[in-house]
Amino acid sequence: MSSTLVSGMPGESAPFEQPWELRAFAMAVAAYHAGQYEWSEFQLSLIDSIKRWEADDGGEPWSYYEHWLTALETVLAGNGALSDADLDDATKAVLATP
Predict the structure, then answer these.
(1) DSSP letter, residue 62
(2) What is the model's pTM?
(3) How many CB atoms lie within 10 A of CB 26?
(4) How distant, in Å, are the alpha carbons of 36, 49, 88 from that of 20?
(5) Measured on CA atoms in the order 7, 51, 17, 26, is the torsion positive or negative?
(6) Distances (CA, A) of 11 to 15, 70, 80, 87, 94
(7) Does residue 26 contact residue 70 with C-beta atoms inside 8 Å?
(8) Which residues contact 42 (CB under 8 A, 6 or more apart)?
(9) Could you read off the pLDDT of 33-44 as tens digits, one per residue?
(10) Burial of 85 by CB count in 10 Å (0-12 exposed, 13-18 middle, 19+ buried)?
(11) pLDDT digits (tens, 9 = 90+) for 5-28
């Protein structure tokens, strides 16, 4: 199923290593289609997250979708679409889903 969702994306044939990565991807796409943010805003936030990781000399292990999720949280919280409490509740619900 995930290969259908991301067909045509550059990279490996199975870009998701963990189920939560596919959910994070799908949440970002759904929020974009619902008009919650502009894609360019998300891209800039993603770039910023990766730059912060690089500036920290990669102190944390590399995870593209950790940065993806950070970018999503940043844009949704920044434009008021998601409060910290909403984000905590949504994160718990997503992580509880097998």
Answers:
(1) P
(2) 0.70
(3) 13
(4) 21, 18, 15
(5) negative
(6) 7, 21, 33, 29, 25
(7) no
(8) 28, 32, 71, 72, 75
(9) 999 999 999 999
(10) exposed
(11) 444 444 445 688 888 899 889 989
pLDDT band at residue 29 using 50, 70 and 90 as cut-offs: very high
Question: Identity (one letter) of the amino acid at 37?
Answer: Y
The tokens for 3 are: 């290969």
**Helical H runs in 6-63?**
19-33, 39-55
Distance CA 87, CA 98 (A): 19
